[in-house]
Amino acid sequence: MSAKENEFICLIKEWIHTITLRPLTPNKPYVITSSPEPYVNEQLESYSDSEIDYIYKIFNLLRLFKDGNIGFKEIFIKHSYSAYGLIDQNFNIKSVNENRNLADIKIFSLAPNEVSSCNDFLQKYCSKPYDFLKPCIDKFMWGMDLDTSTGFEQFASTLEMLLLNKNEQNKKEKLSKRVAVLLGTDSSNITSLYHKMKSFYKYRSESIHEGITNNINVLVYAELKEIVRSVLKKYLQICYTNLISKSHITWPSIKRSTITYLKNEVDLKSLLFI
Predict the structure, then answer these.
(1) In which band, very low, low, confident or very high, does the pLDDT at 47 lie, cut at 50, 70 and 90?
(2) Which of 68, 72, 64 is nearest to 118 (CA)?
(3) SS3 at position 156
(4) Is residue 76 within a helix (H) or strand (E), and if so which, with residue range?
(5) Span 25-54, average pLDDT
(6) Burial label, 171 (beta-carbon count in 10 A; 0-12, 13-18, 19+)
(7) Burial 243-258 (b: 16+ CB within 10 A, else e)
(8) b/e 79-92 (16+ beta carbons within 10 angstroms → b)
(9) Rounded to whole angstroms, what are the CA distances from 246 to 85, 110, 124, 128, 259?
(10) Residue 199 near residue 223, CB atoms below 8 Å
(11) Phi, psi at residue 69, to the nearest 5°?
(12) Rounded CA separation 205/186 (Å)
């Protein structure tokens, strides 16, 4: 498949779910209108919202698992419900999203040996680990749907949400070191990541405060995107591991302990940042 081709897949789900109807009142007529009454309508919309949120979650996890253009174009939800032998109505909801389909020409695809690990990734992280990180994931996803310089800024902001405490000073230095020790595989790689992140944060500051974007090219954008993706995947694993032993643990607690660990690692590897 070439980069300019598109592939469309239609997914269909049929499900039966129960709603609560306004009870019949003796000797009082039940008025049937052409559309669901507000009490019913609220329940149908709530169910539709939960289904759409789930679809967003799965697509977001796919985009975290691997780079590439994947997203939905339209979601059609048709509710058919009956009650009391009198009511037989349909209620339709449509959600349209074209941003993902326009933002990236790189098609999302899985090699045969990636299918199993992708399914494991979805099943492993689709509940609380995802919910904990949802604000950070949403910002990252938004960044991928924007122009290069604005998306780059959102990627840096995502890292701040994950790796910095509120109102922390000297952000560039601390963020660069924490990314380096979190993702670095050896001393050389840690040092390289540290200097790269310092440059990236400088580009981000120039873009936000001075409107200078000439350093944010496609290559730099892609590099920072992969760094943020890797950090988010690390955090998903951290959340998952913590939840196994402490099911009631909270996101602030996980973030706090992770940052403390990274601070200690930075101190231990201080000679790599000279």
Answers:
(1) confident
(2) 64
(3) helix
(4) strand 74-83
(5) 75
(6) middle
(7) beeeeebebeebbeeb
(8) bebeeeeeeebebe
(9) 49, 34, 16, 12, 18
(10) no
(11) -85, 110
(12) 28
Q: Tell whether the model's pLDDT for residue 5 goes beyond 60.
A: no
Q: Both tokens of residue 135? A: 């604000």
pLDDT digits (tens, 9 = 90+) for 126-171: 999 999 999 999 999 999 988 899 999 999 999 999 999 998 999 9
Residue 52 is encoded by which pair of tokens? Answer: 């759409």
**Distance (Å, rounded) from C-alpha 186 to C-alpha 182?**
11
**Number of other residues whose CB lies within 10 A of the CB of residue 130:** 20
Tokens of 261: 């660990």
CB neighbours of residue 128 within 10 Å: 15
Residue at 221: amino acid letter? Y
Q: Which residue has the tokens 């988010």?
A: 232
pLDDT band at 29 (very low <50, low <70, confident <90, very high): low
N residues, the chain: 274
Locate 196 and state its tokens: 């790269």
